[in-house]
Specification:
233 residues; alpha/beta; Rossmann fold; eight-stranded parallel β-sheet; 9 helices; 36% helix
């Protein structure tokens, strides 16, 4: 699978972009690359990249996040260290963008530097199981709202349709078909379809570019409980 120096993950709340971002960072690290993860999701009180800090550190991955992450204070403050990631072109960066257009606004200040370098992917994480992205039109509404908020166009789509631990291979396959419909409307490719590693034998020959993921610390599910339409994997 091809990759750029900077990979940005954005999508609707609960799309699972944070878990994918962490898995993608670990995958890049296994390719022998120097990797930094930047958490720009300052509005999501649930699952944050901060929740995977120990595992990232163990893998030798640097994490940049708000000093208020996972505290009782969640101010709209972003670390200046993000600029160091943009300046240090020896590192591959994975950027977790805040959910929806509100979260994507935080990315705006970094867009000029990202555009100037031009070595990036902006990936739209799509989970058809979420209430507000169950139709193509609804998904496109979120898609274009995020683009407008951060002034950075998406370059590809990631299928992450899931129902938490209840997810079957059929759910992932149906999600890819849905992602392909969104792809046809936007003209963007589907970069990969994500699914739990345990589903690999059922999915490797059924979806293109299957990306196996491990579920990181399930903070969201511990907090809210597991139910259909409330997944953040």
């Amino acid at each position: 699978m091809n990759y750029k120096r900077l990979t940005l993950f954005a999508g609707h709340y609960g799309s699972g972009k944070t878990n994918i971002a962490l898995n993608y960072a670990l995958w890049l690290r296994r390719q022998g690359l120097k990797v930094t993860v930047a958490d720009l999701d300052i509005v999501n009180p649930y699952f944050r990249t901060k929740d995977g800090e120990a595992q990232l550190r163990e893998a030798g991955i640097r994490l940049i996040s708000s000093e208020y992450a996972n505290s009782n204070v969640d101010l709209p403050a972003l670390p200046g260290e993000v600029y160091s990631l943009l300046d240090d072109r020896s590192a591959h960066g994975v950027i977790d963008v805040g959910g929806d257009d509100r979260g994507a606004l935080a990315l705006g200040r970094y867009v000029p530097a990202i555009r100037e370098e031009g070595d990036y992917e902006m990936l739209f994480v799509l989970n058809r199981s979420r209430p507000l992205t169950r139709t193509v039109d609804d998904a496109l509404e979120v898609f274009y709202e995020i683009e407008a908020a951060c002034a950075l166009p998406f370059t590809a789509i990631v299928n992450n349709t899931n129902l938490g631990p209840l997810t079957s291979a059929g759910d992932v396959i149906a999600g890819q078909r849905f992602a392909e419909e969104v792809s046809a409307r936007t003209g963007l490719p589907v970069k990969m379809s994500c699914g739990a590693r345990k589903l690999g034998d059922e999915l490797y020959n059924k979806v293109s570019n299957f990306f196996p993921i491990d579920i990181m610390q399930l903070y969201y599910m511990e907090k809210e409980g597991t139910s259909l339409g409330k997944t953040n994997l």
